[in-house]
Amino acid sequence: MNREALQPEDSGNIPKQKNVELHAVASTEDMLLIGLLRSGNETAFVSLIDQYHTSMVHLAMTYVSTHSVAEEVVQEAWVGVLKGLSSFEGRSSLKTWIFRILTNCAKTRGQREGRSIPFSSLVDRDADLYEPAVDPDRFESAEEEWPRHWRVFPTNWNTLPENHLLSQESRACLQRAIDALPPRQREVITLRDIEGWTSEETCSLLGISEENQRVLLHRARSKARRALEKYFDGE
């Protein structure tokens, strides 16, 4: 995660949830690869593992408690990919299809571990959209001279040495902050800022609108930044 991702930004108005899913259909290259996989081409499958395995482990870690369990989930997902090749119809990209299999496996495993909240208990899966992204006390109140303007400005990290921002302790602090996020925020920041997914890819995988993806990302970045601010201020 680079320092720009955690700089303050304008979250805009909080949108109402819409049942919108962006679909990136399978490309010609995807379908050619599917053909190779269906024919049992081992080289094609190994190349696919080399391309996505590490990212799959990172995403699985947002649902389960340990790296070893995440590796088991990914292995299970690859088995699911092989079993599902005959049913792939190209209505989404191959990448999105693979990662949907992964998230289904990871969520099921996470629920068994007690790390994730069962879907049946999620009355409003995007309830965390409506919490404040920044502590309201950092802004002046309506009764003050400059209502809704910053009272306490965010720390300017451009003055901090690069090696300090990227130290092992700083990265551990950031990871703890991400691990503590609500599930949807944790998913979005992992995909966008750690794995480098585009907004469209993230929306397609998670089945959310672009507006909600943007707000979830802003919420997640704000909390991660707040955790780092406390860490650096403590030092």
CATH homologous superfamily identity of the largest domain:
RNA polymerase sigma factor, region 2, helix turn helix motif
Mean pLDDT figure: 79
CATH topology of the largest domain: Rna Polymerase Sigma Factor, Chain: A
Number of domains: 2
User: Helix and strand succession?
Assistant: HHHHHHHHH
Oligomer: single chain
The value of Rg in angstroms is: 20 Å
How would you sum up this structure, described in words?
The chain has nine helices and no strands. The protein is an all-alpha fold. The longest helix is centred in the C-terminal third of the chain and has 25 residues.
A few lines on this structure:
With 235 residues, the chain is mainly α. The protein contains 9 helices and no strands.
Give me the secondary-structure topology.
Layout: H1 28-38, H2 42-60, H3 67-84, H4 94-113, H5 162-165, H6 168-179, H7 183-194, H8 199-206, H9 210-234
